[in-house]
Specification:
OB fold (Dihydrolipoamide Acetyltransferase, E2P); alpha/beta; 33% strand; five-stranded parallel β-sheet; 2 domains; single chain; elongated; Rossmann fold; 31% helix
């Protein structure tokens, strides 16, 4: 049973969603909210599996709710506006339902949620059996497994984190502090916005680090001594 909430300020749309959820046996509606601010307060102490979110809301828009929420549950956007479809997938959005939508289209979105939930559960169970040389993380709608040795560096700004590997780049919402906690001793924070893999270090020059694949990143002043000590120990 997936616990869900509705964030929607229009009564007719609330009614339709409540009916569709009630007609879906593995969904349970916990509460309906008319604004995102109240919903955010509820979520702080009442975790749910799924949020049905409108975009045009009073006080705090649906997109601002997504942009500023930490640990956002899986979300289905229910809106009359199509122009946010591309941006919304940076967040934990599973599907984008354009109003008015049918029960058939609603069930297609729920099937995506179920498939993703099964995938997350599968990888969670599998994770215990893999070596510590691999790491799992969410990138868009995918759960990605990457060999740590292939990660060159990880960089973060206020909106997202980039994982740069030898072959490609992944976008994720996991903050840099979570990466610091789960990566092993080959990784060290070299700047407030960068964690590097020391195995890809080529050289340091002044306040710059040169990594493989011609990547050059800055050294943060407060991180410099710890970084240099770590490099010295590897000689």
């Amino acid at each position: 049973m997936l616990k869900s909430i509705i964030i929607e300020d229009q009564a007719p749309a609330q009614f339709i969603l409540e009916k569709f959820i009630g007609d879906t046996e593995f969904l349970k509606l916990e509460k309906t909210f008319s604004d995102a601010v109240e919903a955010r307060g509820y979520l702080e102490s009442h975790p749910v599996d799924l949020v049905f979110l409108d975009i045009n809301l009073p006080l705090l828009s649906g997109m601002d709710f997504l942009r500023t929420s930490a640990n956002q549950p899986l979300t289905i956007l229910t809106t009359a506006y199509s122009e946010f479809a591309l941006e919304c997938y940076q967040y934990n959005v599973v599907d984008y339902l354009l109003k008015p939508f049918s029960f058939e289209r609603f069930t297609q979105a729920i099937e995506k949620v179920l498939n993703l939930t099964r995938t997350l559960q599968h990888f969670s169970e599998e994770k215990a059996s893999v070596t510590s040389g691999q790491v799992y993380f969410r990138s868009s709608h995918d759960l990605v497994k990457v060999d740590c040795k292939d990660i060159i560096f990880i960089t973060s700004d206020s909106d997202y984190t980039e994982v740069i590997t030898a072959s490609q780049k992944y976008l994720t919402l996991d903050p840099l502090r979570e990466w610091s906690a789960k990566l092993d001793g080959d990784f060290i924070q070299a700047h407030k916005s960068f964690i590097i893999n020391l195995n890809h270090l080529i050289k340091t020059s002044k306040n710059k680090i040169h990594l493989s694949k011609d990547h050059v990143i800055p050294i943060g002043r407060v991180f410099k001594k710890r970084l240099m000590d770590a490099i010295e120990r590897r000689k």
